[in-house]
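Example for reference:
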Amino acid sequence: MSVRPARRKLGLWMATALVVGNMIGSGVFLLPASLAEYGPISLVAWGFTAAGAILLALVFARLSRAYPRTGGPYAYARRAFGDFVGFQTAWGYWIAVWAGNAAIAVAFVGYTAHFWDALAENKVLAAGVGLAAVWAATAVNAYGVRQGGVVQVVTTVIKLVPLLLIAVGGLFFIKSANFGEFNASGDSAFGAVTGAAALTLWAFIGLESATVPAEDVKDPEKTVPRATVAGTAVTALIYILGTVAVLGLVPAAALATSTAPFADAADAAFGGWAADLVAAGAAFSAFGALNGWILLQGQIPFAAARDGLFPRTFARTGRGGAPIVGLVVSSVLVSGLMLLNYNASLVDQFTFIILLATLTTVIPYAYAAAAELVLLATDRPSFSRGRLTRSAVVALLAFGYSVWAIGGAGQEVVFKGTLLIFAGMPVYAWLKYRDQHDHAQAVEAAQVDESEPPAQAA
């Protein structure tokens, strides 16, 4: 009898790379241009969002230490609130992941167009390149979770080079005159910070990444919390320094219309060769984020299916332990979303999709923070007794931040995102009907077995 080899798991570096790589994806390379209308006050928004992200990272770190189980936000919400909220969390998070992957694939095409001009003009070609990237990353992750982790480490290192070039080296070339008016939005300081923070939140989506494949991580009780907090802190520092450098290198008027603000900043500081380097780094960054998020798009339905809250077929895995069905079905949905919108401009596609993806991710964040509050009260032995009060305060602040972020997404996005969440309710009803039907059949079969007389010995 052959024995299947043990699954090779993610270590601390791979888990941290998953966190950093999933957060530093495509958004950060475009955000300085979007934030230009607010002026340097956007740095306050970055700080505020970074603080909220750290609070959420601490929540996920404690929950992952107490419950090192695959599923991340879904697993915690289900444990605290039961099947229905658990399903809502898994459904919303799954939508966010595969919809976000469509946005990242679009951004990958946009960055690649810096070197391949035809991509900016030929929408069919652009769609083909985007789909090729999606299915290449799907193939890597279908081969095994660790293989996806190796790709994540490599792409994370590559993407950090151009970002650090600007975030650190660019600081020596900034000019104070480029910063412009501190609050250029024309709104109140609170309104400007709120509006800018709603944009910066997309750049932090993914801080929970190491908690999702927890059972595929070595020593998850220690590795996942360390990777989550360290990855979030490092990413926040890079974001803030990078934004300071771009604001100081590119004049405010030019920044507001820039389609590649980091590349423009590199050109201003070091010359044209640096702009090409940053553009290449952005393309690698987008592909690395796509790879990491595709890893997660199979893990969420896998965890839910294993608990009976998704169709059972999503629990199937390949030889390497990867959830093949979840990966393939999710990538089919990514492909469909890209094809439905391929005729729109790249910017329009990216903007529409990330707003919905951000909302449907922050809702599970809110559930996770509330879940910790519930579990601190109902399952105290799983947490450090000496830190219960501090943990409760952090979880409460993280929940408040999540609710504020949901409101800051805007009425239209909240409306459409809520409809997507509600669309999952018939699926939940069908799953419960299936379970009840299976249970009734099992009871009936057991009764038949009991009613039959035992066979007589010959």
About this structure: The CA atoms of residues 441 and 447 lie 10 Å apart. Residues 272-306 form the longest helix (35 residues).
